[in-house]
Design goal:
about 200 residues; mainly beta; Neuraminidase; 2 domains; four-stranded antiparallel β-sheet; 1 helix; 12 strands; about 15% helix; elongated
Length: about 200
């Protein structure tokens, strides 16, 4: 049997180990970086003498893309959410249904019955394909754009351009506009024979 002295030593050793573990846990959690929580209030108003058409918030939550009509002319604008100043994207005249790339660098939109994209900082718009009449779009993390045509159903195309592939055949009784919140579908084997009523697989 253990002597009284040995039992006391074991008890003190257990207490020391427990205190050491508690100290480690305390130091570990107090050194973790705080969550970057941002709270802001903003007012979203159209540019002077214009009216909103379509609005899309960037995935990083920092910018707003919107189309606004002034005297019959529709233009695409970008505005930081922490600012009241909006910047016109000159080469995106007639833009409709804007939507963002997942990295918030590009904006997809429709103009002149074509699907186009443009950098959020400006520059020339790049035409990806025909889309007439358009019905909204969404951009997946895999670099695929899903877009709709009012009478044609859903289609997919690489964000860099290329071949257009049909994703669904429209059910005319259930037509709906695609938005950036719509799950983006795109697999190589799903294009033919699907109807808009079928639940599509979701692209990550």
């Amino acid at each position: 049997m253990l002597s009284v002295q040995k039992r006391e030593r074991l008890a003190w050793l257990a207490v020391a180990l427990l205190l050491g573990m508690l100290g480690f846990v305390l130091v570990y959690f107090t050194r973790q970086p705080a969550t970057d929580a941002r709270v802001f209030k903003t007012s979203i108003l159209p540019t002077e003498k214009s009216s909103f058409e379509h609005i899309a918030v960037s995935p990083d939550g920092r910018h707003l893309a919107f189309t606004a009509a002034t005297g019959g002319k529709v233009q695409l604008w970008v505005r930081p959410l922490n600012s009241t100043e909006a910047r016109e994207l000159a080469s995106a005249q007639g833009a409709r249904f804007p939507f963002w790339s997942p990295d918030s660098r590009f904006i997809g939109f429709f103009a002149d019955n074509r699907l186009k994209k443009i950098e959020a900082t400006g520059g020339l718009a790049l035409t990806l394909c025909d889309a007439q009449p358009p019905n909204g779009g969404a951009w997946s993390r895999e670099g695929v754009i899903l877009f709709g045509q009012v009478a044609g159903g859903l289609f997919r195309i690489s964000a860099t351009g290329g071949e257009v592939t049909r994703v669904t055949t429209p059910d005319r009784s259930r037509l709906a506009r695609i938005t950036s919140a719509t799950p983006c579908v795109a697999t190589d084997h799903q294009s033919e024979g699907r109807s808009a009523a079928d639940p599509p697989p979701v692209l990550p």
